[in-house]
Design goal:
- By secondary structure, the chain is an alpha/beta fold.
- It has a single domain, classed as Maf protein.
- The chain has helices at about 10-20, 30-35, 45-60, 95-105, 170-175, 175-190, and strands at about 5, 25-30, 65-75, 80-85, 110-120, 130-140, 155.
- Strands 1, 2, 3, 4, 5, 6 and 7 form a 7-stranded mixed beta sheet that branches.
- Helix 5 (about 170-175) crosses helix 6.
- The relative contact order is 0.17.
Amino acid sequence: MAALLIATTNPGKLAELRSLLADARFELTDLGRLGLDLGVLEDGPDYDAIAAEKARLYAAATGLWTVADDTGLEVDALDGAPGVHTARLAPDDRSRRARLLELLANRRRPWTARFRCSVALVSPAGETAIGRGACEGEVVPQERGVLGFGYDPIFLVAGTDKTLAELPLRRKNELSHRGRAVRDLLGRLEHSPLGDGPFPPK
């Protein structure tokens, strides 16, 4: 069976994408199984460009169909920052959350925000399709939940009383930016499939 590469080194993202892509007719593989990390610089102008470039580089290096994503947290009180720089706000998840709360400390609540995500699927020939999703909510000052990663413990999902870190994986995938981006991608492929890819038209 052909393989579909999930190009992320983030264990949390990998678990989510494996669940969301479970219906692929290709076997799912990942960078850890391949022993591969190209150290891609995520410095594109927007989420689409970063996700597509990451997927393109790994597809070219492996000859495999490849999925990659880029995600950002946009906080209204910070004029949409950190945005595409979300992962570079500090060296690790805990310090990123702390730094974000420092930046917001003197801003009036609620700290409305949204996650945006682009998921790119690239063929070995370089054909590309992109899905996009967003999750509205607000940043809260105290961490809640242990199920998520990144900024999940301080992101309260709109219309719920839960942070992303309080939601089990199946429910998180229903509501999250990444889940919506994957579903948008699959919907686009129903109308414009890429060659003989992992998601055939229905």
